[in-house]
## 1
Amino acid sequence: MIEAQESGTPLLVLTADRPPELRDCASGQAIDQLKLYGGHVNLFHELAVPEPRLELLRYLRQTVAHAWQCARIPEPGPVHLNCPFRDPLPPVRDASATGLSRDLDEAFFGHLSGEAPAAGRITARQRLSAPRGIIVAGPCAVTASGVYAAVLQRLASSLHWPVLADALSPARHHDLSGTVVVTAYDALLRNARVGRALLPRQVLCLGGWPTSKVLRGWLAQSGAEVLLVAPTARNRDALHGRTRTLQLPLENFDADRPAQVDTTYVTAWRQAEEAARTVLDDKLAATRNLFEGKAAWLLSESLPEATPVFVASSMPVRDAEYFWRPGGRRTQFYFNRGANGIDGTLSTALGMAHGGKPSVLLTGDLALLHDANGFLIRPKFSGSLTIVLINNRGGGIFEHLPVARFDPPFEDYFATPQEVDFARLCAAYGLKHTLVRDWAQFTGLVSRLPVHGIRVLEVRTDRKRDAAFRKKLFADAARAAGRAL
Ligand SMILES: Cc1ncc(C[n+]2csc(CCOP(=O)(O)OP(=O)(O)O)c2C)c(N)n1
């Protein structure tokens, strides 16, 4: 529910309930469900207890139509309807309802339409005048990602600004030829001299800020003027910068060409990116160790075109941001990055893959285990999901915190290692499990995805060694960027 609100996803949630006379009287299995989701919904309504009366059916029709409308405008999000039922609950014949069938003809619903209600289309054209400007393409899960990328490409070319492309933005996965696409920003901005040389005056932020702490810190200190374009009324600026917000989808936005263009600035970005990217790519290609970041890197090279990928919170989303190679593979990214929870990861990925194209989930072990019972849906699941499980026995993300040097309490209270045998867990749910031995085998397994079923590819990694290797990669890439400027 919270992620639906955070990401602006329309969602209608129906909770079944006891009727009012069976609440607050120890009747069993009855809790207070009213406004259960607090402020996380666009609308809460408790439906009337059903009765076979036409007036009540008219009320139900209107209430459900209104609820669905509230799930879409003014801001898409979740709506909660609590639905009380009274005995008899089995579908037994009820003579009192037969008379109603006459009135429930097509005309009863005929005036309703499934189309989204027309919200006012606002468009805006802005003057972005600074010669030293950047576009930060942040998280954005649009379905028409090709359109988004085309609009972005036009905008970036006319402004002559580089695009810092998050892995959660279509900007990373579409061909933006003619623009400078920066993907190694987290690594290259670790070099303070490079960071100073590339400071922008204006920033156009699309959707919101990427995860990278390094990028966020650099932007917060830059003092740059920010224009944030996002189709939401929610505050998306955790950096509290000199920010103006335009509540628009990118397609409705345009910018005038700046009067002056500083080609040395955009060239510096290109050189820094090329140098840092080359180091990352070369070192990742060369490493034979099962370094967890290499899974994201290899997926970016090997997956079939336009594969839907759900990327879990914690290190998977960060490794995608650091290492996922840019290009025109049109990979479609999905994520729960509103509250950044590791809960519900498996079920969300199964929902994404159900009835659609062969899909991939990239997840850590704790995130997968949090929702392991999501596998119970397997007999009803139609489609294909390949789960790339990075098993580093605990929360690898915490190895990057200063507290990692203090053990105890680090292992027991932060890393929280687990000892689950995933082969046996998969067997219990009737899933195919493969323990990945090396990267050649992994590449083969993800280059062609099966048409049906759920399979788990387990990559056993070492979180301490991998945290150290990440740091080394970033340091090498940052040095190379420095040499390039
Ligand atoms: C529901 C929920 N509980 C706790 C957290 C805090 N948390 C963030 S990352 C993380 C560890 C995740 O471990 P894993 O999925 O194995 O990924 P890794 O850190 O190894 O990449 C935890 C517990 C959270 N984000 N969401």
## 2
Amino acid sequence: MHYGRSGALGQLEAWNKVNPHFYVKGDITGNVIFGLHVAFAAVITILGPLQLVDALRTRAPRFHRVSGRVYIASAFLVSVAGLYLTWVRGAVGGPVMAVAITMNGAIIFCCAAFTIRNAMQRKFAAHQQWAVHLYLGMSGVWFFRVFLMLWLMIWRAPVGFDPATFTGPLLTGLSVLVYILPQGIAAVYFHVRCNGSSLQRALFTGFLVLTALGIGLGSVAATLGMWMPRL
Ligand code: HEM
């Protein structure tokens, strides 16, 4: 809402309320790519959850197919724009963070390709699994913000990282946790769902409930502490 509204009103300087280098006077390419990045981010944020709603898939399969194509195309475009912002324009965080988010981009490319390929080959079980992997890959940057805000809510101070340079062990660990680990967790989920014993299912369910609780609390912290003040 913040980027879209100020973009539509031509007040691009307002982007710098979030970070002083999001709008750079004279850097037309960089500004356009940043604008496209956040525009596609909005598209995928709205369409992604809808793709996972069972009722919508069964009652409106045409919507699922069209919106799925838009989602996959946006996944590629948001990542290409993200790679430009990371490596050409330069972003906050050190080289470790740049490599970590690049791996996130690579995971997105890979999962998006397999999701659409399996759908076109009508291998729907495999399509569904890759779609979940893709959704988690696409949610990486959101997890990053949510878990960081949860951490700040718990400690009430920037423990484990330097807020001036946005580097430190906490951020390196968090990058692995949010960009890479969810792929392993999804693989375990599908294994437990298909072949797990009742104990394994109960343990995994407990883990998911705890994670959901953390995400819920982190979302409240991010909404109140980061997103609402920018509107
Ligand atoms: C796929 C889902 C993604 C979403 C929803 C998303 C969303 C956003 C948003 C909203 C911003 C503006 C900053 C903010 O308000 O927090 C942003 C900035 C940025 N994103 Fe993404 N992004 C995604 C993926 C990626 C990927 C895959 C990369 C890199 C390969 C990337 C790299 C960046 C960079 C470098 C910035 C600017 C940060 C800076 O200059 O310090 N993003 N993204």
